[in-house]
C-alpha cells in the first residue's frame, strides 16, 4: 500500500485548484487520513485518524511520509498552519524527494507567511522532483514571480499552468491581466 498525498493546501491558496491523489490499496487509519485529505474533509475526527495512523499503525516508509503530508493538508484546512508546516517539514526531512510536501509547503508559505522567495524555491523543488500537479507549482511560482516583479516569468508560468490544465480557469483569468507590447 502506498499513500500519496493530495494538493489541498494549494487549493487554500489557489482558487479552483482541485486536489489529486493516487489510488490507495488497503485499509486502515492511514488510508482514512489519505481519503480525508483527498476529499478535502478536515475535521477533528479525520485529524485523529491521521494521528492514530502515525502513532499506532505499522506503516511502510512511503506511507509514513505520505501520512505526514496528508495530515499537514488536514491541519492546513483546519487553520493549524504551524502544525501543517511542521508536518511538511517532517515529510521533507524523511524523504527529500517527496514532491508533494514541497508543493503543499510552498502554497502555505505563500498564503500564510507571504514569503514569495521561499515559496518560489519550494515550487521549484516540487517541479524538480516531478510533482504530480505541475500546473499548481507553475501557478504558485507565477504568483511568486509576480510578487518579485518578474512579470515575464509570471506570465510564462501562468501560461504553462494553463497549458497543463486547460480546463482550469484561474490561470487563464490571470493571463488576461498581461499584454505584450513591442518596444519602440
From TrEMBL:
<feature type="repeat" description="TPR">
    <location>
        <begin position="65"/>
        <end position="98"/>
    </location>
</feature>
<dbReference type="Pfam" id="PF13432">
    <property type="entry name" value="TPR_16"/>
</dbReference>
<protein>
    <submittedName>
        <fullName>Tetratricopeptide repeat protein</fullName>
    </submittedName>
</protein>
<dbReference type="InterPro" id="IPR019734">
    <property type="entry name" value="TPR_rpt"/>
</dbReference>
<dbReference type="InterPro" id="IPR011990">
    <property type="entry name" value="TPR-like_helical_dom_sf"/>
</dbReference>
<keyword id="KW-0802">TPR repeat</keyword>
<dbReference type="InterPro" id="IPR050498">
    <property type="entry name" value="Ycf3"/>
</dbReference>
<keyword id="KW-0677">Repeat</keyword>
<keyword id="KW-0732">Signal</keyword>
<feature type="signal peptide">
    <location>
        <begin position="1"/>
        <end position="20"/>
    </location>
</feature>
Amino acid at each position: 500500500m502506498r499513500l500519496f498525498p493530495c494538493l489541498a493546501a494549494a487549493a487554500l491558496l489557489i482558487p479552483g485548484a482541485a486536489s489529486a491523489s493516487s489510488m490507495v490499496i488497503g485499509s486502515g487509519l492511514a488510508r482514512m487520513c489519505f481519503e480525508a485529505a483527498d476529499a478535502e474533509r478536515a475535521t477533528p475526527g479525520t485529524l485523529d485518524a491521521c494521528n492514530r495512523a502515525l502513532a499506532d499503525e505499522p506503516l511502510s516508509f512511503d506511507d509514513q511520509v505520505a501520512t505526514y503530508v496528508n495530515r499537514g493538508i488536514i491541519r492546513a484546512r483546519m487553520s493549524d498552519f504551524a502544525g501543517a508546516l511542521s508536518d511538511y517539514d517532517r515529510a521533507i526531512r524523511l524523504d527529500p524527494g517527496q514532491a508533494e510536501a514541497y508543493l503543499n509547503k510552498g502554497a502555505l508559505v505563500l498564503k500564510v507567511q507571504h514569503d514569495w522567495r521561499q515559496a518560489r524555491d519550494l515550487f521549484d523543488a516540487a517541479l524538480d522532483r516531478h510533482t504530480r500537479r505541475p500546473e499548481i507549482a507553475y501557478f504558485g511560482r507565477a504568483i511568486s514571480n509576480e510578487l518579485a516583479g518578474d512579470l515575464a516569468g509570471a506570465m510564462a508560468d501562468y501560461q504553462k499552468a494553463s497549458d497543463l490544465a486547460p480546463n482550469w480557469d484561474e490561470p487563464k483569468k490571470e493571463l488576461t491581466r498581461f499584454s505584450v507590447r513591442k518596444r519602440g
